[in-house]
Amino acid sequence: MLQEIKFTGLNLSDLSLNANSIYLIKSSERENKQGELIKTVKTLEINKVDKTDSLSAVSTLAKVALAEFKAATELDTEFRTFDGTDIETGIKSLRLLRSYLSNNLVIWKTDSNGKLSKAVISEIPLNKTALNVNEKSGLLKVEKSNLKAAIYQLSKGIIAQTSYLSLVGKQLETIEALCNQSAEQTATTAKVKTSKVKTATTAKVALAS
User: Fold this and answer.
1) CA–CA distance, 189 with 182 (Å, rounded to integer)
2) What are phi and psi of 114, to 5 degrees?
3) Over the stretch 141-156, which tens digit does the pLDDT of each residue have?
4) What end-to-end distance do the CA atoms of the chain give, in Å?
5) Which of 44, 60, 131, 137 is least enclosed, having the fewest CB within 10 Å?
């Protein structure tokens, strides 16, 4: 089951959460009229899941993302026409999951005792990964018989995306190594040419003598 829960004045460690669940969490702080700082924590919870390991957590969220996109699209289509006129309802832009993915780097999970821990730590905001399902998402084009396999494959891809900066760093190291190697080869070639020129010049001087 999917639900949004709001906690006020509590830290993450103080939250009372359901066991064996997947969470996306966002927090904010504001001052009240008395100048007191009020902390608010909102959670998007998918509870009673079978597994909470990294791949399973991502797979669960991918299913939620697809389901919410389909539901929002269905509502938008149903209520888009008013009195024979096509209007923009904005329903698709109000998707809940997207707001939790935005600027969020962590997917949380709870164990059988409700203890909270990190299932996935991303190097880039989660809304920059394929969890941000849109009209161009491949899942929308997959046959029903292949959906399970497609979600599994997509989830592995999303896990890889969470290490995006590290992947870029590795490619950068390779490129720099190749550039340095090329520079060394160029320098060596230049030295050899200089040496040959010197040898040839010396030989000419000797012959002239």
Assistant:
1) 10
2) 85, 10
3) 999 999 999 999 999 9
4) 98
5) 137
